[in-house]
């Protein structure tokens, strides 16, 4: 058994699926199967699994809930969610609560699935475990209210009042990308007093900001203007895996969430509209994750993403140039946004291209 | 959470919903008959414009006639006022004219009486002492008492009149008086003094009342004892009287058509207040009277002209009033007509708006029902897709794997085939294998005979997966029945099996579905529609259950009906909304989730089959929806 690539657990209520997975994987891996979440939990105690594959739809407990348990019981195991059809709510929860490594849709590819599981098992074996960041209870932000307006600064805060808020280090900053000025101002109001926030109203500004100095956390809408931001996030994760990304979206689309996980390894996905206090907790948690990643470069592979095609950077650059005609500089936030509007267009474009090249090129 | 009404999960299939599609469609349309449960707007539809036109026309006519009546009344009233005024004016004028004439006559009388009194004085002064006093004294000797003793007789007309012999008796006394000495002188003197005056006749009476002298000799001797004028004069007061005589014998002969004033005047003894006799003087006032009458006539003419003028003016006024009245009525009518026209336009516009709104609402209703249908369809498709996906996933995986593995068997099979050929060619039981040449190939054979068994199992699983998919497809076909007659003899249990099978793919695993079917006769119905009802009820039931629970679908025969119960252990339905859940658009689901048409449509379908849906519920313990369908629903369903 030692020559096998890893120990994996498959959980599905459908025995035929389990048999098919067994047949598919038994040559390369030590496969254990469980036909229910309860059986799966029992097996977790008996074996040190490298990878756990779970179906989303099971009687009683959903795959997300089960993987959440797996994360607590065995944080080392990489988690893969098998889904028959897309359930947005479950996918958002799987991002935020279970921190799944990949979504795999049924029917699976018989070459791709073993490869993915092998990769996950490899990561699980080779990389150190990152302690799970504090869980964010959905109830807290509602009680917290508009924190930024009430609290003067991080230094004065009693720890018991804001137990989760970390003090920012001088070299850390947050990049907020959203074309909605209201959202920018709301988020700034919540974070601005304790966190260094830079705002970008479009991707050109975002690229410039990223090029100017490194950021710790990128907070972005899925779409800014007419440009899809996921490519930027994917590129960032690929080239700068220590940058933690938090994405919010008013569009309820399971495919977006799936892509963000599989290709962008987003840290959190927040459906809009959100409560301002919640953002604060998420950001706090994201900064902790960023520090873990910054301190342990070898742990970054745990959040490795599917290889982004080289042309992605090129298509992103094209889109940014196309959208450049309608560029609107971000409102002058307290932290001083990128002064993009003042630059002539040619200079701006060349700076964006240069920034992209420096960020993602080569 | 209150029990929720599932939207159009009813119509998972593409089946046409009865009562929703084109509600006002021609009755020939098979679906049209099932629209009975929908509002009262169809059929004998309320025609607002027509109703308004008739009702308001009647009301306006009433108002107009009332106004016309009022106006006419006012005209009549004015007329009567005018008439009263005219009559009063006429009466006043007539009174005035009469009084004026009477005053003129009175004046004439009193003037002439005064003249006669003076005349008498003159006479008396001139004639009485010397001539009349002795003559009267002489006349006293002529007896008249015997004539007076002759009784009066009843004349025709009831009056007492002197009989002829009495008159003759007095005439005889007159002759005796005329025969008395001095008569002739007196007579001559009287006639002489009467000449050139307006005095026509003079009579003298003694205190006995006997006419002792008259310028008309025939009257001498006449008795005046009972004469009112004589009596008055005897009492000391002159008495005058205006008379008109057609013929009057004056001393100068007979005159005709004379107006006369006769005055009885007392004669006082010279130098005393003692009445010694009575004169009667007739004076002619014809010219004065003519003057008075002329004046009166003028006044009358003036009065008449005034009356005419007043009448004319009043007629004019009346006409004017009536004209203005009619003008007012005409104006009012015009205003009413305009008002009616304006109201008519408003109502017509309102009617059009209402109609278009109704049409919009209808369309929205249909669209809503359609979108629910599509949403439900999507939900079902998603459920079915997932259900299909599982066998699909493992079948695909297994088949791919088997294809992969089969590659491993190419070489062993080829080798075995070669060995087999060698064996066939070998004459004896020995064959020669050149191991050196084929060692590499033989050694590379990895195929495990166990793999064949495994592949068999894999393909066996694939077969099972295909069976699962086939079963699902069969149920879907049984559910939609798109390839079957719309109306047919149908065993509800058969439909319910498919419905429950499909519903399981949508409802959570924690909800158990129990099927308890009793034997049912086949009923004539539209199976696809009934399947929709049952699916709707089962999914509603599952939505009423939070967490785990149980749904029991049971059927039984009940007299002339077949009964399908869908019971759940969910939250139940509060009594206050139990009556309303079948109403269109009533929903307890959040906005955008349910349209509130599901149960409404379900009820329409049940009613179109001559059946009914009822609900019983104990809040907190669950609810039971019962569909009752007549065994002989055939007639209804066929008509539907």
Report Rg of chain A: 21 Å
Query: What proportion of the residues of chain B form beta strands (DSSP E)?
Result: 15-25%
Task: Going across the biggest sheet of chain A, name each strand in turn.
Answer: 2-1-3-4-5
Number of beta-strand segments of chain B: 14
Low-confidence stretches of chain B: 1-43, 635-640
Number of helices of chain B: 13
Q: From the alpha-carbon coordinates, what is the Rg of chain B to the nearest angstrom?
A: 70 Å
Series of H and E elements of chain A: EHEHEHEHEHHHEHEHEEEHEHEHHH
Model description:
The complex is a heterodimer of chains A (362) and B (640). By secondary structure, chain A is α/β, with parallel strands linked by helices. Chain A is built from 14 helices and twelve strands. In chain A, the strands form three sheets. Chain A has a five-stranded parallel beta sheet with strand order 2-1-3-4-5, with helices on both faces. Chain A has a five-stranded parallel beta sheet with strand order 7-6-8-11-12, with helices on both faces. Chain B is an alpha+beta fold and 640 residues long. The interface between A and B is medium-sized, with 19 and 23 residues.
Any chance you could write out the topology, listing elements then pairs?
The complex is a heterodimer of chains A (362) and B (640).
Chain A: E1 7-11, H1 15-25, E2 30-34, H2 37-46, E3 51-55, H3 63-73, E4 78-83, H4 88-98, E5 102-105, H5 112-126, H6 139-144, H7 147-150, E6 174-177, H8 181-191, E7 197-200, H9 203-212, E8 217-221, E9 223-224, E10 227-228, H10 230-239, E11 244-249, H11 254-264, E12 268-271, H12 276-295, H13 311-324, H14 345-360
Parallel strand pairs in A: 1-2, 1-3, 3-4, 4-5, 6-7, 6-8, 8-11, 11-12
Antiparallel strand pairs in A: 9-10
Chain B: H1 48-139, H2 145-149, E1 153-154, E2 160-161, H3 164-178, H4 183-194, E3 199-205, E4 211-214, H5 228-234, E5 239-250, E6 253-268, E7 275-284, H6 286-425, H7 435-443, H8 449-480, E8 488-490, H9 492-504, E9 511-517, E10 523-525, H10 527-544, E11 549-558, E12 561-568, H11 575-578, H12 598-608, E13 612-618, E14 622-630, H13 634-639
Parallel strand pairs in B: 9-11
Antiparallel strand pairs in B: 1-2, 3-4, 3-7, 5-6, 6-7, 8-10, 11-12, 12-14, 13-14
